[in-house]
Amino acid sequence: MILCSCNVVSDRDIRERLRGGSRPSVGALFRQLGCEAKCGRCARNIVAVVDEHHAAMSECAGGGCEDCRVDEMAA
Fold first, then answer.
1. What is the DSSP secondary-structure string of 1-66?
2. By CB neighbour count within 10 A (0-12 exposed, 13-18 middle, 19+ buried), where does 62 fall?
3. Cα-based torsion angle of the residue sequence 2, 37, 30, 25 in order, rounded to the nearest 10 degrees
4. By the 8 A CB rule, do 54 and 23 touch?
5. What is the pLDDT of residues 2-51, one digit of tens each?
6. Among 17, 20, 12, which Cα is nearest to 3's?
7. Spatial CA neighbour of 27 closest among 13, 11, 15, 43
8. By CB neighbour count within 10 A (0-12 exposed, 13-18 middle, 19+ buried), where does 70 fall?
């Protein structure tokens, strides 16, 4: 799903940058993607994806369980 229409950034693009244990800011994610926020309407949705990812990581202690949703969410 496209989260940022200005830069055509999808939820998959964001999740691929969330592999590490840190919690990046929206600005840091844009820098990793090589672009910058323009209108800012996407920020709330990007934060929701980051929150969802970190909630899934904390549920299964970082992705070590067999039924981990983290890999599924990134696919």
1. -EEETTTTEEHHHHHHTT-SSS---HHHHHHHHT---SS-TTHHHHHHHHHHHHHHHHHTTTT-ST
2. exposed
3. -100
4. yes
5. 999 999 999 999 999 987 667 899 999 999 999 999 999 999 999 999 99
6. 12
7. 43
8. buried
